[in-house]
Amino acid sequence: MKNRTFIGFVGPSLFLMALFIAGPLFSVVWQSLHVTQPVYIQVETEVCTPGFLSQKCTKETQTQPKLDENGKIITETKFSGFESYRALLKPELIFKHISERNWLGLTNIDFYKALRFTLTFTLITLPIVLVLGLMIALCINQALQSLRGPIIFVSLLPFVITPVIGALSIRWLFVGDGILSILLEWLLKREIALFAQGWTIEILMMSYRVWHVAPFAFIVFYAGLQTVNRDSLESAIVDGATRWQRLQLVILPHLSPLILFVSIIHLMDSYRVFEEVIGFRSEAHVISLQWLTYDLLTPDDTGNRLISRASASSMLTMIGIIFLLFFPLSRSWREHKLRRSG
Amino acid sequence: MSEYPDMPRSFQLSRSLKLLSNGFLSIWCLIALFPLLWITLMSLKYPLDAFSANPLVVIFGPGTKAAGASVNFFDLLMVILWISVAFLGIKHWQVKKNLGPKNLLYLGISIGWLFAVFVFAELSTSVQRLFGVDFFFTTPLVGMTTEHFQSVWIEQEFYKQFFNSLLVTAGVVSISLTVGTLAGYGLARSGSGWAFWILMIALVFRALPHSVLVSGYLPWFINSAEWLSPFFGEVAPTLYGQPWAIIVVLASINQPFTIWMLRSFFQNIPRELDEAARIDGCSHGEAFVRVIIPVMWPGVLTAGLFSFLLAYNDYLVAALLLDAQNQTMVPAISGYFNRETTSTDQVEAVAAAVSITAPIFVLVMVFQKQLVSGLTQGAVKG
Questions:
Q1: Would the CB atoms of B330 and A162 count as touching at under 8 Å?
Q2: A vs B: CB pairs below 8 A
């Protein structure tokens, strides 16, 4: 295919991605280093209050936003350096807390709170999703042929459901006198309030995420199981390998590219954790990095959006995902090269 | 053993292991289904039943029945029959893969049935009133009310959000498929090193959290009347709050995923097919139109399903870039749970949630095979 025809085919897609994915990245970098604020002017006003014999007049200087001829607030954009990053990361507080060994204080700063939760969430759900997905795939692989369709249908539902709605549906089961929290209370013989403290909400959020993503892992693994080399399995039996050894030495190596694939996708997606915070309404206890940016972008009571701080938080989020994906991506890159040369 | 003619010995299990494995599967299915099933039940009851601590009360709804809202044996029978007709229609379509007259028959029957259910429900109550006796058919059986759905859809005008969602999803699906199909085909057929790098960059783009991108757009969208005025003059639009702006944004965010999926699909279409057309004197474009377009629909359908899901399920982008009157269904639901003050409000929020889920349920039912193939396609091919 000639270069020109290639560009003809790929061009529109590249244009969209450049304009709406690459473009915003540059704009985020710029915004995080600049601050847009209303221009304030000092206005001297004489305020007079009626008094006995004569009016009492005081001169006051007020700061007011400057207005243009249409009555709109004039804003100016200034280079602010790393001020927005500082406002998020609060380095002076870190040093204070670390020198006082006050680790709890550290997790009370929004950014670190969000970072801690996002990372724990991502790293804890990953192995659970992989193991659960593999178990379902192995079990369904021996189920009756006629039952497989319905089981896959039921399993797909948690995966395709709108994430906010999925989180809400789990929340309604556990909130207050929800049916499952009553069941839990009955089992544990004590009163529980699952939405009163952070760690129980976190467990619910992780369970929701596992429920939501396990079907994806299971379907990918199930497809992989269909292509396991049966001869090598048969010969493993002849050699006297136990079921566990067959799984470990034949099936898992065969699935390893798929496990890597599911891991990469899961890292990307769970690092973006956001809908859970909305659905579980956990912002008072638990927040995530993406929610932090979202919150900074939402107008506050006075209608201001903290754009530059949100951009700084976006930049930091992005740096995080690069770190997180570096290891698995470089591994698949190496495998790709090996396969090409081999 | 005869159940598994092609099952190798290695996959066969002892009786106890088989029991264990089937038990595990049943538990999984229960867990997968339960939350959705339960909120559907809740949405159909009055608050007293919906939030009862006794699960049987939630299922049978005695309070709802006492309040006069119930279905009888006859209604249930009609609904079950209707579901089976619809199911048969879908199965028939899945097997035959094309829309024949028989499908239209099924479609006709199932739509007609829906009307019949309403008519007969009225009929059975009027027969009852006429004779003043309870038939077995007409005794109230299970308490059930559609009041909350009516209130959400009609009084609170949820249909407006529904149409906004419809507009946004339709726009996203059509744009991302048009652009993505061309790119996927180009990437699959080009041997150049560029193709590889484009795919790698697309993978990196896929990893970006959407909030990062939105914080890049937001100031531009809000101030767009200013910086677009040199091009459009007085009529320069404010992009913030415009459905078509969010359509383009979501379609672009979706591009990395779409081109990956469509590329692997086009790679499975034999190269010889379009090469033959090229030898006959077609250009690449002509070969694409004449040879590839007729055979690409299964892959496009699969990619379209995933674009649909992305656009339909999106919360973050729509919540930040659309204003209240153009809001889509999913962000609008936060309005419901923010004013969950009375218990009726809560059941209405549940009903809104069920309303959002229903189209997805139908989607999985009809397109299960395509969804599964889409999930495995990228993965297995590597």
A1: yes
A2: 296
Residue with tokens 């995902």: A321
* CA dist., res. A170 & res. A156, Å (int): 17
Average pLDDT of A114-142?
91
In a domain, A18, yes or no: no
Average pLDDT over residues B95-106: 67
In this complex, is the C-beta atom of A275 within 8 Å of any C-beta atom belonging to chain B? Answer: yes
Percent of chain B surpassing pLDDT 70: 84
Bridge partner residues of A275 (DSSP): none
pLDDT digits (tens, 9 = 90+) for B132-188: 655 566 667 777 777 888 888 888 788 888 888 999 999 999 999 999 999 998 888
CA distances in angstroms from A284 to A104, A177, A201, A237, B335, listed in the order given? 16, 21, 11, 56, 18
The DSSP secondary structure of B263-289, one letter per residue, reads: HHHHHHS-HHHHHHHHHTT--HHHHII
| Chain A residue numbers touching B21 (CB-CB < 8 A) | 138-139, 142-143
B97 Ramachandran zone, left/alpha/beta (phi>0; psi -120 to 50)? left
Residue type at B299 in one-letter notation: G
Q: Exposed, middle or buried by CB within 10 Å (0-12, 13-18, 19+), for B53?
A: middle
The whole-angstrom separation of Cα B179 and Cα A15 is 10
Q: For the segment A139-178, what is each residue's pLDDT rounded down to a tens digit? A: 888 887 888 888 888 988 999 999 999 998 888 888 877 7
Q: Which positions in chain B touch A173 (Cβ < 8 Å)? A: 34-35, 38
B113 pLDDT higher than 80: no
Number of domains making up chain A = 1
A12 located within any domain: no
Q: Are A317 and A256 in contact (CB under 8 A)?
A: no
The C-alpha angle A56, A61, A66, rounded to 5 degrees, equals: 130
Phi, psi of B158 (to 5 degrees): -65, -20
pLDDT beyond 50 at B275: yes
Closest to A163 (Cβ–Cβ): which among B24, B187, B313?
Answer: B313
Residue A199 belongs to domain with CATH number: 1.10.3720.10
Q: Does any domain span residue A16?
A: no
| CATH architecture under which domain B154-381 falls | Orthogonal Bundle (1.10)
Q: Which helix (H) or strand (E) holds B18?
A: helix B15-43
Of B25, B212, B249, the CB nearest to A139: B25
pLDDT at B8: 52
Q: Which amino acid is present at A265?
A: I
For residue A300, the enclosing domain spans 103-328
Q: What are phi and psi of A305, to 5 degrees?
A: -110, 130
Q: Are B188 and B266 within 8 A, CB to CB?
A: yes
B145 φ/ψ angles, rounded to the nearest 5 degrees = -140, 145
Tell me whether residue A11 is in a domain: no
Q: What is the ipTM of this complex?
A: 0.84
Domain ranges of chain B: 13-63, 70-143, 154-381
Provide φ and ψ at A58, rounded to 5°. -125, 145
The model's confidence at residue B379, banded by pLDDT at 50, 70 and 90, is: low
**Which residues on chain A are in Cβ contact (under 8 Å) with B215?**
24, 28, 31, 293, 296-297, 307, 310-311, 313-314
